[in-house]
Amino acid sequence: MSYVKPAELVTSMIDAGESKVLMSTRDTLIRSFMGGAMLTLGAAFAVTVATQTGNPLVGAMLFPAGFVLLYLLGYDLLTGVFTLAPLALFDKRPGITVGGIGRNWGLVFLGNFAGAFMVALCMSIYFTYGFTSEPSVVGEAISEIGHGRTLGYAEHGAGGMLTLFIRGMLCNWMVSTGVVAAMMSTSVPGKVIGMWLPIMLFFYMGFEHSVVNMFLFPTGLLLGADFTVGDYLIWNEIPTVIGNLVGGLTFVGLMIFATHGRTGPKRVVHTRPNGKTFAAAPTRVPPQG
């Protein structure tokens, strides 16, 4: 059967986390570079479709193509390792340390950013004929996204920062659900369907994905958008990374691990002296008399 039950799923998640932490620096950088590049090509595609059709839903429905391809090719995203790598530590796998997890996260961040920036540079050239003309309609749309999702948050002060964090948290709740859902099937169609739904949801809802933003905002800056590198880092990337970490690890990794990896003892059926039965925790002593 193609369906992988949760009890088996959690083992696959822990194995994947262990593999990522122990992976060589070379392979981690290559896989994260390509992961960042492929995801952001998908983002460029989605924004192009949404802009040209005037229908954001169509763009959101097609955006998961990049995510699906990078996952099937075994590439890595920061949002995914945020969720999976700590599980190997919680499971006390040999050789897995906090330092090792931090090393993995740092390398994946660098690789994702390099891949995303490469796509940002290529698309900026594409949108401007090699910086010899004004940006195309799609380029202008990306510039506006960068402006609205940096200075737009800043206008609301602490409320804007909180909103940014929450959007980052909700984003990786969905993205990591997509990563895990792909492990719930052993068939390619099953994996694709499992990934497609939550990824489409996050993109259409406008949640904040740290790696997608590594493309959108540098592209906007390259095209002359009205915000700065500091605006991008303070009013988007840094809070988004923190929100992504909290959302993926808390609502996906820890929840599945807690209930399927460390299942609590089942309630036990007890019989009272009068013959009636009731269910209670195994540590509970049945009442006398």
Kindly describe this structure:
There is one protein chain. The protein has twelve helices and two strands, in the order ααααααααααααββ. It is 73% helix and 3% strand. The chain has 289 residues and is mostly helical. It starts with 5 loop residues before the first helix and ends in a 9-residue tail after the last strand. The relative contact order is 0.15. A hairpin with a 5-residue loop joins strand 1 (268-271) and strand 2 (277-280). It has a two-stranded antiparallel sheet.
Which SSEs are present, and which pair or pack?
Blueprint: H1 6-22, H2 25-53, H3 56-62, H4 64-72, H5 78-90, H6 98-128, H7 137-148, H8 151-154, H9 158-182, H10 188-204, H11 210-222, H12 229-261, E1 268-271, E2 277-280
Antiparallel strand pairs: 1-2
Helix pairs in contact: 1-5, 1-12, 2-3, 2-4, 2-6, 2-7, 2-11, 3-10, 4-10, 5-6, 5-12, 6-11, 7-11, 9-10, 9-12, 11-12
Low-pLDDT runs of 5+ residues are none
Rounded Rg:
22 Å
In total, the number of strands is 2
Q: Roughly how much helix do the residues carry, as a percent range? A: over 70%
| Total count of helical runs of at least 4 residues | 12
The largest β sheet comes out as: 2 strands, antiparallel
Order of helices and strands: HHHHHHHHHHHHEE
SSE class = mainly alpha
Mean pLDDT: 95
